[in-house]
Specification:
The protein is of the alpha/beta class. The protein has a single domain, classed as Aldolase class I (TIM Barrel, Alpha-Beta Barrel), CATH 3.20.20.70. About 40% of the residues lie in helices and about 15% in strands. It contains eleven helices and eight strands. An eight-stranded parallel β-barrel has the order 1-2-3-4-5-6-7-8, surrounded by five helices. α3 links the parallel β3 and β4. The chain is globular. The N and C termini lie close together (about 10 Å). The model has no long low-confidence stretch (mean pLDDT about 95). The structure holds 1,3-dihydroxyacetonephosphate (13P). The site of 1,3-dihydroxyacetonephosphate has 14 residues, from β8. 1,3-dihydroxyacetonephosphate binds next to β8.
Length: about 260
């Protein structure tokens, strides 16, 4: 039975002061959250600052990236063990902003998936098509191919206790979200594909949607059977907006009985 997972991805925003204030506001706002799961992904250098305020809260820490190595001569990189050392629970991998700006490919992302599982963190595999692929009707094949790259290296078992975030690139930061009905179709095709390997893993995997999610539109996504949460960018930088999204998740009737 899947419950809703809401994650705020703060990307490259904020400073020590604004991040501390935002964290304190969220900890206060979410003191009574118990049904949905919540995580925040601050810029990596503030993970330790944020962590101190999360003690005894329901909010988990999420990293925005991880390196494929655990240690060594890899200047500027962050290891999964370092993230674990700070009690980080999740890590985003394959976000389109990293695929585009840092030229990360499916093979790199599969290695990141592997290292996170090895250390015991939960990978959030971000997938999704660009506008051209969307217009050409390739959405489902693009998403399936991004998932296949993981299965090829690690097998279907890797998706046990993992998360997939479907984020159409054209919907990110554009103010135009994908339609909840279309997202449902994509999520269903992802779940069906995973079920073709293992029905139980498919049933249990959390599949989030991300791309211009707001307090106003979020309920329509939660109303879809195969949308198990949201990955929120801009709206997670405002304590009121993010709280409204989390409160909507908390009150939602999910998990659905099958
Ligand atoms: P926005 O919510 O700003 O569109 O960003 C989505 C996203 O990229 C989350 O990872």
């Amino acid at each position: 039975m899947r419950s809703l997972l809401v994650i705020g991805n703060w990307k490259l925003n904020g400073n020590k002061n604004t991040i501390t204030n935002l964290t304190i506001a969220l900890v206060n706002a979410f003191y009574n959250i118990s049904k949905c799961s919540v995580a925040i992904a601050p810029p990596v250098m503030y993970l330790d600052v944020v962590k101190r305020y999360l003690l005894n809260s329901h909010i988990q820490l999420c990293a925005q990236n991880v390196d494929i190595h655990l240690s060594g001569a890899f200047t500027g990189d962050i290891s999964a063990e370092m993230l674990q050392d700070l009690n980080t629970r999740y890590a985003l991998i394959g976000h389109s902003e990293r695929r585009i700006h840092h030229k990360e490919n499916d093979a790199d992302i599969a290695k990141k998936f592997f290292i996170l599982k090895k250390v015991g963190l939960i990978p959030i595999l971000c997938i999704g098509e660009n506008k051209k692929e969307y217009d050409s009707g390739y959405t489902q094949s693009v998403c399936i191919n991004q998932i296949k790259a993981i299965i090829k290296l690690l097998g279907i078992e890797a998706f046990k206790n993992s998360v997939i975030a479907y984020e159409p690139i054209w919907a990110i930061g554009s103010g135009v979200s994908a339609s909840p009905e279309n997202v449902q179709l994509v999520h269903k095709s992802i779940r069906d594909y995973i079920a073709s390997y293992d029905a139980s893993i498919a049933d249990n995997i959390t599949i989030q949607y991300g791309g211009s999610v707001t307090p106003e539109n979020v309920i329509q996504f939660f109303d879809q059977k195969d949308i198990d949460g949201v990955l929120v960018g801009a709206a997670s930088l405002n304590a009121n907006s993010f709280s409204m999204i989390v409160q909507t998740a908390e009150k939602h009737k999910k998990p659905y009985p099958d």
